[in-house]
Amino acid sequence: MDPTEDFLRGELAEKQTSIAAQASVVGELKANDAAKELIDATVEALNALKAEKASIERRLQAVVLGNGGKDNGSGFVNKDDFRQAVVNTLERRLFYIPSFKIYGGVAGLYDYGPPGCAVKSNVLAFWRQHFVLEENMLEVDCPCVTPEVVLKASGHVDKFTDLMVKDEKTRTCYRADHLLKDFCKDRLEKDLGIDPEKAAELKHVLAVLDDLSADELGTKIREYGITAPDAKNPLSAPYPFNLMFQTSIGPSGLIPGYLRPETAQGIFVNFKDLYYYNGNKLPFAAAQIGQAFRNEISPRQGLLRVREFTLAEIEHFVDPDDKLHPKFSDVANLEFLMFPRDVQTSGQSARRMHLGEAVSRGIINNETLGYFIGRVYLFLVCLGVDKERLRFRQHLANEMAHYAADCWDAEIECSYGWIECVGIADRSAYDLHAHTDESGVPLVAYEKFAKPREVEELVIAPVKRELGLAFKGNQKMVVEALEAMNEREAMEMKAVLESEGEVQFHVCTLEKDVTIKKNMVTIFKERKKEHQRVFTPSVIEPSFGIGRIIYCLYEHSYYTRPSKAGDEQLNVFRFPPLVAPIKCTVFPLVQNQQYEEVAKHIARSLTAAGISYKIDMTDALFPLPHEVNLKKKMLFSFATCVAFSGTSIGKRYARTDELGVPFAITVDSISSVTIRERDSKVQIRVDVEEVASVVKEVTDGQSTWVDMLYKYNMPASMPQDE
């Protein structure tokens, strides 16, 4: 538990005890007809204790509400109000909306509107630049429909499940761990009077939630008296539900398939061809961006938990005996929040750590895994994720698959708490082994030796005839178990067989021990010359949930500021130019044909430079008198139109600020225009022919806005009068 929260809960418990004691004293004094002055003084002391209790409750409320207790610059204190303001703005401005809304919508499905599509496109374009181009990766695009045999080999058919419970009367389904999580969080946030020991217990449940078995989840649900959220009916015991959407391929229905739950399997099954394309050289990485599908039991939290979503995944294939990375020094000095497993289990908070130190101390398993963790950090920060609300959490030992060497999640804090947005895992050689075994096609790599090497090789030769007689239908599983022994296990079995003639051997797939006799297997070592080494590569996999990253980016970018009149709060998204849906807006200050021609000329130059923009002629104000000559028109527009249209120009700026547009170009002259920056509201004046190059230079990251302020002799502190 957070030390501050622990202290405040203890202080609150003590204060409640003091209030109860003081109230008892007041009652006794009144019952004994004590002097009025004594009773009044005692009541005053009681009221003072209650005021102190209320103060502690407010401080505790701020702590347990997470974002609610922090000043993140958004202008909000309560995280629920903040979230609702963000979502309302996003839906109103059509960043995203529920799918099929006119028919009532379907939970877990969302449509991206024009600005949402643009943000997503920009994020994916930067992902390609940052990873695919920078690391010279091989990009592929595989089908969403996947034959069952592929997902059977990968383990998804049997194990891709969440635990579900049902309302025993209405049969409504709920995800079991979500119900327990909601119960614990609600108690911690709303029942401030619970004692510190109970609070610590609830915190512990939240910490180990992902590791609870079906029986343990069911026990906790019964212990806490959790019922169906809607009808308050009893719940069934938790049971597994497979999250894949099942289908059939072809009209006969004879080829079962699924909509893919991830994009990675398409890369694994193409390893042999990709390895050949890469010149039969390791290491190399393949990447894929595409849709994935998961039939979530109870989708919620907007874009964070949906049934169809975009994944961007990388499979970096590397020699399992050499996981050094030639570019690790580029990221070794990065320092950011890390949450290693020993820190988690000791109840401490994430701490800042140098990446190089984490690798050298063995906290991160190897350099290649560390390199990708560093690259993921740089990617997220460049997008606009607040680095103070970004941490890398290591999976606990009981969270990791048995084959994984190490796993870390990039978690971003938002109003829903810490959200896993990127997983970076060393998956060992599990996936390639699995598809090799199922398909019969060796997915292996080769290391050719300059000179032949003499090696000693272990040979395990099961005698299938004897094993068939002994185990009949179970022969295949026994043979597979014998062949899967490592050298130590095999040599120990050989020694026992030679001394005793038989040995007890555990077969995992049979879940029991069997008796192996000396005539059933031959084990020996032989020496031979090898001209090459054949091995199955390990895989380092960074997997990005694009929708989750985008939603967290929305929250981290959102804030409000007062209008010029101070009578309303205006919404702003502080997107970096890199991901902003529109890079700039162009509008004439007044209705004037010459200004409109200038605006169209600027628009053409922006298009030629590849810069997204929005041109708005409809709001130009106050047409100038026809009798005023051009020179006077220019003076009129520059000197008086701002005064006439100040409120309206402010509203036009506010509309683009709400879309996160970083620059507004106002045409108020035929030779030069103003460019206004969104967050500072500072303007510079630029020649018409320079506008596109200025905007491109800043949006491409070649220069900063401050650079432009100095270039055009405008002090950075100069405010824009709107």
From TrEMBL:
One Gene Ontology term, aspect cellular component: mitochondrion
Matching SUPFAM superfamilies: Class II aaRS ABD-related, Class II aaRS and biotin synthetases, S15/NS1 RNA-binding domain
Catalytic activity entry: tRNA(Gly) + glycine + ATP = glycyl-tRNA(Gly) + AMP + diphosphate
Superkingdom, taxonomy of origin: Eukaryota
All copies of domain WHEP-TRS, residue ranges: 11-67
Key word Cell inner membrane present: no
Matches recorded under InterPro entries: aa-tRNA-synt_IIb, aa-tRNA-synth_II, aa-tRNA-synth_II/BPL/LPL, Anticodon-bd, Anticodon-bd_dom_sf, Gly-tRNA_synthase/POLG2, GlyRS-like_core, tRNA-synt_gly
Coiled coil segments of this chain: 32-59
Residue span, Aminoacyl-transfer RNA synthetases class-II family profile domain: 81-562
GO MF, any single term: transferase activity
Cellular location(s): Cytoplasm
Record keywords, A-Z: Aminoacyl-tRNA synthetase, ATP-binding, Coiled coil, Cytoplasm, Ligase, Nucleotide-binding, Protein biosynthesis, Transferase
GO biological process, one term: mitochondrial glycyl-tRNA aminoacylation
Pfam families: HGTP_anticodon, tRNA-synt_2b
Family: Belongs to the class-II aminoacyl-tRNA synthetase family.
Protein name, per record: glycine--tRNA ligase
